[in-house]
Amino acid sequence: MQNHLRPLLSQSLIGLAVFSQIAIFAQPSSAETITGQLGNISAEISYDKPEEYQYKNVRLQISRAGKIVLAQKLPQESEYDRPVGGIYEKEDKLPILDLDGDKEPEVVADFFTGGAHCCTYSLIYRYDKKSQKYTQIRHDWGNGAYRLKDIDKDGIVELESQDDRFAYAFTAYAASAYPLQIWQYRQGKMVDVTRRYPKLIYSHASELWKTYTEIRQQGDDGKGFLAAYLADKYLLGQGEDGWKRVRQAYTKSDASGGLRQRNQYFADIRKFFRETGYIK
Questions:
Q1: Distances in Å between the alpha carbon of 153 and those of 15, 150, 156, 254?
Q2: What are the start and end residues of each CATH 2.40.128.460 domain in the chain?
Q3: Which end of the chain, N or C, is more open, meaning fewer C-beta atoms within 10 Å of its C-beta?
Q4: Angle of the 239-249 helix axis to the 223-235 helix axis, nearest 10
């Protein structure tokens, strides 16, 4: 699972970064748009691009049966936040889909903040029939992204991702690994439902362990992968078994600096897991 999801996340972000660079010698464009439609609901993101890597006056318009219901300027952390349409779909299409199964589609505006490997976030718009207005939440994906997938085949998609809090937590970014995360959008909120899918977690943990053994053969200490593997084991309710395997793998001889560094690494894991909720 990790080998399947991680490259796609990396390729997606690399693609976004490369896309931002291929037009470096081209003339600046303006009033560009990303559009989407589902039934009688249509949406459009428009923006100006006065200079390369700059995206200004980003606006969202949502119409229902031809009537404009929402028209607003979208918040940006900086002028480098780029609207990307669907992260895993066509980038010139704005995702409109029913995320929570209430027969009322949501509009999803995805952004990429630029840089080598960071960051993506989503603005999700939900229609309130009582007020006849759209409300919005923001969800940050960090260095990764997400995949829309109906995991339990109930007709309602989940958002499959990874826990980006593990980036840099135990090693450099390039050597970091991440536990599985699965989200559901319900009544205007994002809910972490990862523990409901033990088969996926088990498969993900197995891939992490496989990758750990491969990189150990290449001379890497594998600390990032061991921590992510142990987090998956906690999600499965198998923390004790996970610790046993991690202790056997990360021995004194494996850790440059000896026993003290090994003990510090394990202490850091416990502290981090408590702070992030893996250890209840």
A1: 30, 5, 7, 44
A2: 30-142
A3: C
A4: 160
